[in-house]
Amino acid sequence: MALIQLNFESEKLGRTVEAMVILPVESTFRQAYPTVYLLHGLMGNHQDYLNHTNILQWANELGLAIVMPNGENSYYVDWSVPHHAYGQLIGEELIVRTRQMFPLSSRPKMTMLAGLSMGGFGALRNALQYPQIFGYVAALSSALNIYEKPERVIMPQEAPYLDLEQGSQTDKDPRWLARQRALQPHLTLPEMFIACGKADPYYDLNKDFAREVSDLGYIVTFAAGEGGHDWNYWDPALKQALDWFYQQLQKQ
Fold first, then answer.
1. Cβ proximity of 105 and 29 under 8 Å
2. CA neighbours closer than 13 Å in the CB half-sphere of residue 193
3. Given the DSSP bridges, would you call strands 35-39 and 111-116 parallel, antiparallel or unpaired?
4. Structural domain count, the chain
5. CATH number at residue 70
6. Angle between the N-to-C axes of helices 174-182 and 203-215, in degrees from 0 to 180, rounded to the nearest 10
7. Which of 1, 25, 148, 218 is at a distance of 20 to 30 A from 201, taking alpha carbons?
8. pLDDT tens digits, residue range 63-75?
């Protein structure tokens, strides 16, 4: 197994972006690694999963490449201020850079976007924005409360939060995107794994979202677990999501 610190100059953000990359030593997938792009939550960074989960062990056991970028507190969408195109970073630039540098599969059915909390929101949004890239999405405890005004501003500019609050019925809104994609008959929709702890304040939001997209025709697995909005829940839930992805790979 190789653990790589990746730093590259991002045209989308106008600065250096950091990411951690895990490559397994051996894999049953001979030509290129199936890949999970894994997004952290609010106030987190690209090393969160290394510090709080057994992601190194799981990646090696399942033969998966894992790419964990630093998305700051961006919600992984494209803001209306310069050099804040975080959605394009995830769905375009990061994909191109990592596939150029590492033996990663370019097939959507071997590529999953995943995340927790803010990262779960970003995973849903960008898997729906870029269905030609991501064949699967795993969203844990997704922060789907984008219409609630935050108690405090995290980003240095107030404009991005105002932008997000006004994001309903735009491509910043996973629900809107899900409806729009479902109207495109020849589009292959990403399969979804949505999970949330029953004690999580976002539980009902996640359960309702799973039901809504299932009604639209998406293939959805919803996992309701014990626990809240913390690493005690996310550690086993992430393993469950990776196992789910591996099971989908075995069906191909």
1. yes
2. 24
3. parallel
4. 1
5. 3.40.50.1820
6. 10
7. 218
8. 999 999 999 988 9
